[in-house]
């Protein structure tokens, strides 16, 4: 069991406001979800908030080195309340995080997150 991995785009305060893609591999099952950080340090599935799920799983795997997820998502999903529009030539804040359990409720360890900026 390697746990969950996540990427978030354009948080406004701490993690609040970020469009997040999260996933994990549990045996033969690969789980991926489109979430929105609706609180400073918490998130909910877009669909629970009234939005749409706009992520498509390509494949996922798990090994002793860790968890790997390949997915696609539109640069502009039309879910403007819960998804960030990612435009070429713009700079976006990106968050990466991981946890050690195969679920979306376990918090990441202190060293289990990073935030940086990327220009598309």
| Strands, total number | 8
Distance between the termini: 33 Å
User: Count of helical segments?
Assistant: 1
Element-level helix/strand string:
EEEEHEEEE
Protein architecture, described:
The longest helix is centred in the middle third of the chain and has 4 residues, at 46-49. With 120 residues, the protein is mostly beta strands. The mean pLDDT is 91. The strands form 2 sheets. Strands 4-3-2-1-7-8 form a 6-stranded antiparallel beta sheet. A two-stranded antiparallel sheet has the order 5-6. A hairpin with a 2-residue loop joins strand 3 (29-39) and strand 4 (42-45). The chain contains 1 helix and 8 strands; from the N terminus they run E-E-E-E-H-E-E-E-E.
Throw out a few tags for this protein.
mainly beta, two-stranded antiparallel ribbon, 49% strand, 8 strands
Which secondary structure elements does this structure contain, and how are they paired or packed?
Blueprint: E1 4-9, E2 19-26, E3 29-39, E4 42-45, H1 46-49, E5 56-63, E6 66-72, E7 91-98, E8 113-119
Antiparallel strand pairs: 1-2, 1-7, 2-3, 3-4, 5-6, 7-8
């Amino acid at each position: 069991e390697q746990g969950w991995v996540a990427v978030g785009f354009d948080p406004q305060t701490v993690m609040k406001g970020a469009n997040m893609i999260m996933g994990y591999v549990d045996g033969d099952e690969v789980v991926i979800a489109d979430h929105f950080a609706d609180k400073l340090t918490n998130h909910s599935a877009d669909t629970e908030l009234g939005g749409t799920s706009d992520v498509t799983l390509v494949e996922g795997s798990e090994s002793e080195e860790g968890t790997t997820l390949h997915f696609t998502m539109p640069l502009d999903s039309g879910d403007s309340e819960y998804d960030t529009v990612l435009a070429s030539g713009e700079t976006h804040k990106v968050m990466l995080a991981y946890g050690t359990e195969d679920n979306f409720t376990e918090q990441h360890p202190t060293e289990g997150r990073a935030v940086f900026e990327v220009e598309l």
